[in-house]
Structures are given as C-alpha cells and as structure tokens.
Amino acid sequence: MNDSDKTLKQPDADQKQSADLSRHRDPPPAKVEGFTILHCLGEGAFGSVWLAQKHNTRTQVAIKFFTNRQGMNWALLSREVEKLAALDESRRIVSLNHVELNSTPPYYVMEFLEKGSLASYLSEGALPVHESVRVAKSVLQALVHAHGSGILHCDLKPANVLLDSDFEPRLCDFGQSRLSGESTPSLGTLFYMAPEQADLKAVPDARWDVYALGALLYQMICGHAPFRTPENEQKIRDCENVTERLDLYRKIIKESPRPNEHRKVSGVDRRLADIIDRCLTVDPQKRFPNAQAVLDSIEQRERYHSRRPLIALGIIGPLLLIAAMYPLAKHAMNDSLGTARKNTIERALESDSLSATILAGSIEHELEDRQLELERIANEPWLRKAVSQMEGKTREERDVLFARLKKQKQNIDQEVKKKGRATDLSWYINDVQGYHRWREPYSAIAYDKLYSYRDYFHGHGKEYPKESVPQDIKPIDSPHISLAYQSSVTKKFMFAIAVPVFAPEDSSKVIGVLSRTLELDELPKLVFPSAISGKTTPQKAGKNIERVVSLVEYRDWLLLAHPWMTKENLAELSQLGEHSFDLLSLKKTVSQETLLKIEQQASGNSHQDAHKKETTLRFESYTDPVGRISLSGAKQYQDEWLAALAPVGKTGWLVIVQERKPAAMRPVEELQHRLVANGIWAVAISLSLMGLLWLFVMLAMTNQSERLAIRGGVLRNIKSGGILTSLSERDSQRKTPS
C-alpha cells in the first residue's frame, strides 16, 4: 500500500475534479528536449504523468515528473528506474525510453499506451471468463520475466496493468517492487496484497505477487476484488493510522468466509476456480510458489480443454466399434434360438448354484462358530456350577451368579461388531423344566416364565401349543438350531442356537439350556458375506431386482431371510393375524412333490460325500412366496424365477439364489428381433461412426480457431441478460457520443 493508495476510493465528484485539474493545469513542470508535452494524464503523491509527442517520429510517450521532493527517497526512485531498465526487453512490461535523474525536476520517459489501464475497463463490470484468463496469462508472463530477473512487483492491481493498441496487457509501476534478495518490506494496495504482506516487518516474497494475481483474476471474473465490500472499506477508513489499517486488513482476510462468487460465474470450470482459490489461500505455504507455477497450471487447463474432444473421440470411438460388432458376433455365435435359450438357462443356473453353495458354506461356518463358542462356554466348570446353584435364587442373586456370563457376551458382541457381523439379540438360560432363569439383556416379560414349548428347549423340530406341552418334555441333550419363531418379548421373528448345560459332576445329566438368539432380519449379514456381495446383493429398485438371495427352513418350509423381510415389513405382516407368518411358506407356491424332492436331496446331502452327490437343486420355474403377499414392496418379487437351492449343513436350512427368468432370457429374445436387421444396422452404424469422427475433428478445429480469436481480443461470449463485450468493444462504446 503506497502513499497514493491510502484513500481506498475517492467519491465520484472528487475523481471528476481531479481529472479536470489534470487536464487544465498550468504548464508542465519542465521542458523535455525533443518532446512536445500535450497534457497531464494524472497526478500522484510524488509528481505527475504527462502525455508528450516525440518531434522526429511523432510517436506519443508518457513522461513522469517527480515534482514533490519532500519525503521522497531518491534512492528508491533510482532503483525503480534501474528495475524498469532491467525489464525493458520484455514485451509484457511497459518499456523505458529515457531517464534524467539529474534534471529539475527528475523525470523518465516511458512508452504511452493509449487504451489506458485495466482498472478503467473493470469499472464497467466483469470481463468474459476467457478474456479474463487471456489478460491473466499476459500478466503472468510479465511476472515470470520480472521474477526471473530477480524483481518482485509487490503492487499488482488493475491500475498497474495498461493496455496497448491491440489490447494486450502490459505491466507497469515498479515503484513498490523489491529485489528477490531484499528484506525491506513493501506495502501494496488493500484488497490486492497478500495478508502476510500487510506487515511493516514483512520480508518480500514471490507469493505476494501470486496472491495479487489471484485477486486481479477474481475481480476480472466477478467485477470486484475479493473481500472488498462497503462495510470492510468503511471499517478500514475509520482506522486512525496505517498500522491499525494493516492489522484490520489482515484480520478481515483471515476471518472472513473464503470468496466463492467466482464458482457461480458461467464459464468458470473447476480447474480455473481451483487455480483462483489456491492463489488466494491465506497460508502462503499452500499458495502457488511463484508466477511460473500459476502460468503452468493455466496452460495445463487450456491443454486439457483443447484435448477434450480428442479424448472423447478416443473413448467413444472404440466403444461404438464394440457396440457395432456385438450384435454381429452374437448372431454368429447363436445359430439356433433354442440352443441359445438352453445355454443361457444353464449358465444362469450354474452361476446361481455356485453362489448358493458358497453362501451355504458361509452360513454353515458362521453358525458352527457360534455354536462351538456357546458349547465351550456351557462346558466351563464355573457355568455348570452356577446353573446347578440357581434353583431358588432371586433374580439379583442369579445376576451375581451369571455376571461372568454377561461379561463374556459383551466381549463377544464387541468382537463381532469389529468384524462387521450381526450381533446376538439375547442370551438366556432355561432350567431343566423350561423356565427362563436368566437373560441378557434383562426382560421382565420373560423372566421366570415357562418356555418348555419352544423348539430351542426340547429340539423336537416343532413348536407346541402352550396349553398342550407333553408332560414328559425334556431339554435338549445336544446342540440344536431352533425353528424360527416370534419372540413374546420383542415380537420379532428370530431363531435360537441352543446347547445343553450338564451337571458339574455328571456330564450325562442335563440341568439347563444355554441359548443365543438372532433376529431374522439380521440374517442377511450372514447370507450376504462381503467377499461375494457384489455378485449376490439384490438391487434396490422394483422390477430392476434381477437376483435375490433368501433362506428357507425345510422342516416347515418357512422363509427365514429375504430382502423384503425388514423390521418394518415383518411388523406389518404380524398385524395380519395369528397365522400371518404362514404366508412366507413355500408350501403356498411349490408343489408337495417338489418339496419332498428338495427335502430328500437336502437330507441326503447332510450325511453323504459332497463329491459323490450333487449339492444343489436347480429349478427353471420358481415362484417367490413374497410376491403373493399384498403388502408394500412385495409385488416387485412377482414373476417367474430361475432358482438354485443349497443346504446349510445339518441346520435344516436351504439357501435359495433366484434370478428373474425374463431378465435372464432377455438377450435371447432380443436376438430374435435383431437377426432380420443385422445387415441394415451394420451399414447404418458404419456410416454413423464416420460421421461422428468427422464431427469431433470439426469441433477440435473450431475450438482452435476460437482460441486464436480470443488472443486477438475478439469475444463472442453470451452471458445472462445480454452480450459481454470485449475490451476493444468497450473502448469503442466510450468513443461513441451518447
């Protein structure tokens, strides 16, 4: 922030008065040999700039007189001239023609750029995006040359970017510049200088110019500098001195929300927005290190845009070629529609059988692991002793007896969660008569209630009515996986893994049953193991579901797990009546003969060598029982299915992998319609490919022409509300009388 920039912005009336005074002032401060001074272009803190004409060539130049000597550092003036001279060879920087430091007053002669500064054009609003990028690239090229010469500008802003007759930007005013090795601070202009630059002890850094470039590009696109609002300007204007202004400025930059208006401008792509954001990053370490890095990123963006049509051609061309060859290859491979149908069904069922076998094995291993874990716990001496002592104890005393068991359940649940598997709903112990003597978590509804009618207690493969349990009912004497049932506590459908607990001194005497339960709607976490979920997990939307995995119990043919069987749907189903669960039975959709065949096959597999006997059953026509239920979401499971069934060890469960038959057969049916049109399609696709290739070539050539036109200042960008004019068009409008 130099002295001339302490006031953020003059009122319009003051600006007009200053301009009038500059044009109608007294004679120039001095005569310059060889030049005719025409009129004043402007004034600053240390002098004024005048338009002059060279006698011998009639070319116009700008002469800067340093008339205000008070407080002026002549060494700094000398260094500014030296820096301009060092940068004179760059066509992107205003050239220095002549210097007279010993004159009274001192002056130097620069080339005159008749189109004025970029600031005057930005006062009319934002520029088109591609014109903004063009100007930014030119400014960056000037900065790259300056930085390469060891000079940092330190005061980049629209007023210091002049435009030549071709509207090519030229960088000027190196009064605040510093050598790259200097440690003297340099204040730029508010809302353009980096926050770390606004410090009287700051050491010059190339990243100052990077921030200013970002602010300049942001203003060209959005119409105003970042963070520059009337409120912020007034706050800074109210400060009493420069130090307070700098402190407040840094605070505004660091605490205000990041500027994002440029991301909403039409034509600003993600790459350009990211470049601006990185330039304006508050932390200099995260900013571009120098102007060359910014220029490289912008050029890389342009190369990316220019290559997009070719990239698209490279992707789409082969895909179209493959698509063109596919029906022909398909026609050659399938000589007969009958053979095609048979082969398609066989392949689908083979895939379903493989999936069913893998899934059945996964579930069997999971249940075996849980059963073995429960057997190990049931055989621990402390638990056998605790069960033998629980008779006649109060609930609190039983909780003390089984505190260790509760802790074991909690530890096991934690390990199961870490592996992404389903946790048990509950653990409980029944005594030898079937009474519920301990449960985790506790439930007053179940405690000390008789459950001898449950299959998990007696293992008879059925549920007895509560009022007609056999008098000689006994607990299981070997591990058992129960039938599915509806819990009287949670009202949810579940099953139990149960193991007997033997007396401490007699391993043949059962004194209780230890069980762990899982909800049916948690079974998919076992049915869909992550290792193969990509092949078996059903899709989610209506008729788009083409493959479904379910679990059935062949002792009563009830579905145990199915994608439709969520907590909400099961709750809705339970409201249909006492026998609502029967609607999920395969007995409603599969013939008794077929069920018997399935049962014989599954029973045989449980005790025969899998290598000597087929382990799965395949059905070319299967009806999903869920599709017959008149509840929400069930209709999508209607239709005819291909299905493969595989038994889950000795559990009495079957895994069903079903695939929608019309979807599986769709390629065959489509092939029948394509046979007639193959010849026509071959010709039509070939012609279309040639047309598309030519279209992309034309687009690439058109884009190249547009980029060349942009560099010449010809803009045709249409923005909401009308046409955004280029710098040259705005200049023409200024010259036209209103």
UniProtKB/TrEMBL annotation:
Residue intervals of the Protein kinase domain: 35-311
Enzyme category, top tier: transferase
TM segment ranges: 310-329, 680-701
GO molecular function, one term: protein serine/threonine kinase activity
Pfam families, A to Z: Pkinase
Amino acid composition bias (Basic and acidic residues), ranges on this chain: 1-28
InterPro entries with a match to the protein in the record: Atg1-like, Kinase-like_dom_sf, Prot_kinase_dom, Protein_kinase_ATP_BS, Ser/Thr_kinase_AS
SMART domains linked to this entry: S_TKc
GO cellular component term of the entry, any: membrane
Enzyme Commission number(s) of this protein: 2.7.11.1
Protein name per UniProt: Serine/threonine protein kinase
Organism of derivation: hydrothermal vent metagenome
